[in-house]
Design brief:
Strand content: 15-25%
Mean pLDDT: 94
Largest sheet: 7 strands, mixed
Low-confidence stretches: none
Number of strands: 17
Shape: globular
Radius of gyration: 24 Å
Distance between the termini: 54 Å
Structural class: alpha/beta
Length: 455
């Protein structure tokens, strides 16, 4: 939905304003629509339409979570905004039933989310939020926004008021420092994986391509390029900092790290313990799906059937120290092998950086709230167990966050399987009426001991 948000007054503010419309705030909007008695909501998004990682909707790629991890089902299976109801409205329930697919294609998930975004009321695309302030005299937040035209230029300015705010501004592509100058240069394709499909034809035509990154995106891009290039002349290099191209932890008990039970356990740990724990858990969410690994091996093996090896080099345990242009059309990567302590140079015609994402800093939007914010020892926002920023008690309104709390809630923060549960938790907290009763236990694993600490 688009259009100008309703102009509310200080006397009649919104109950809730959401900033950003990705899957997590879309989940919140859908569940808020079902709260008994109704909530006055408005959600703002700078982009003009919903779009979920369009550069990575590679044909045939699937979600790494089951279809039940849609926007609403794990909090409210009866919601009209479920994936199954989306299928029913398109007469596709029986085909889906016979397809026996627990993990749906990414393109289908994107289409489902766009369907929800087209029908849930109160969503305003093409609106950029510029600032948030607390009005202590009226006990409301003031939200300044700019309405954008089709070209992204300012069309009108506006202000709205709300009792509560939820930030869902998402993450942004991460480009390592040594490669930033090249990524910003137009002559040589050095691009982040989030833009892969926009440059796919150019990459396929390049004489030699290097993919950097050992996660799922790097694996899918390497496989897609491998399949598109001629046997014996693949000219691909896949580099990774990790010690191996490792499978994602996908055992059933391992997956219990993505339950509300583990989230609560993690949140209660001391700050330094949490800081040390997150980097060690990379294989829970940064590994590669075992089926993708198998597909890569199968494709490489197929290319040996008539003798010879494919011209594809897969090298883990390598970091890029520096990089630069060679002539006008090539890139030279200076790499180091961590275990060997050896260094080398790789000359390539194109680089795809499957180097992941980082949480967007909240400081720009929340500058007006900075005097009220409470921070931890690393100057990060403190966030309570209901995803609420810890603010000065004089601020009676709540500011909740979605996908900005890895440091307080752990590796499940960006996981789609926790989207509906987190949104329901936020709504239960805001309404104090528990419109969405949530399970008290969600894992067979007992994380931690119930006894008192001995130190």
């Amino acid at each position: 939905m688009t259009g100008t948000p309703p102009q509310n007054s200080l006397e009649h503010p919104h109950d809730l304003v959401g900033i950003g419309i990705g899957p997590f705030n879309l989940s919140l909007a859908a569940l808020a629509h079902g709260v008994p008695g109704g909530l006055a909501t408005a959600f703002f998004e700078q982009r003009h339409t919903f779009s979920w990682h369009p550069g990575l909707l590679i044909e045939g790629t699937t979600l790494q979570v089951p279809f039940l991890a849609d926007l609403v089902t794990l909090a409210d299976p009866t919601s009209p905004w479920s994936f199954l109801n989306y299928l029913r409205g398109r007469d596709r329930l029986y085909p889906f039933y016979f397809a026996e697919r627990f993990h749906i294609q990414r393109a289908e998930y994107d289409a489902y989310c766009r369907w929800v975004s087209d029908h849930v009321p109160g969503l305003h695309f093409g609106h950029q939020v510029d600032a948030v302030r607390w009005n202590p005299e009226r006990d409301v937040f003031e939200v300044d926004y700019t309405q954008l035209d089709a070209d992204g230029q300012a069309e009108a300015l506006g202000r709205t008021h709300t009792r509560h705010i939820v930030l869902g501004v998402g993450t942004e592509p991460y480009i390592p420092e040594p490669l930033k100058p090249l990524a910003e240069a137009p002559t040589v394709p050095v691009l982040h994986s989030s833009d892969y499909l926009d440059h796919r034809d150019r990459l396929i035509a390049a004489e030699h391509v290097t993919v950097i990154g050992s996660g799922q995106s790097g694996a899918e891009i390497f496989l897609d390029l491998l399949r598109a290039r001629p046997v014996g002349a693949e000219k691909l290099h896949w580099l990774a900092r990790t010690e191996a191209f490792a499978p994602m932890e996908y055992s059933k008990l391992g997956l219990e790290h993505f339950t509300p039970d583990y989230t609560r356990y993690f949140h209660a740990l001391p700050e330094q313990v949490r800081n040390d724990l997150v980097p060690r858990q990379w294989q829970l969410h940064k590994g590669i799906d075992a089926h993708t690994i198998a597909d890569i091996h199968d494709e490489l093996y197929r290319r040996t059937l008539h003798g010879g090896w494919p011209d594809a080099v897969l090298t883990p345990g390598v970091s890029v120290r520096t990089a630069g242009r060679l002539a006008t059309t090539k890139v030279e990567l200076h790499v180091e092998h961590t275990q060997q302590g050896t260094r080398d140079r790789i000359t390539t015609d194109a680089v795809v950086l499957a180097t992941g994402y980082r949480e967007r800093p909240l400081d720009r939007i929340l500058t007006g709230l900075d005097p009220y914010m409470r921070r931890d020892s690393a100057d990060r926002p403190r966030i309570d167990d209901t995803y609420r920023l810890v603010l000065d008690p004089s601020v009676t309104g709540a500011v909740h966050v979605q996908n900005a709390e890895t440091h307080t809630h752990g590796v499940g923060t960006p996981d789609l399987g926790l989207a509906a549960w987190r949104a329901a938790t936020i709504l239960n907290s805001l309404t104090a009426k528990e419109p969405y009763p949530l399970p008290r236990r969600t894992a067979f694993t007992t994380f931690g001991l119930p006894g008192r600490r001995t130190h």
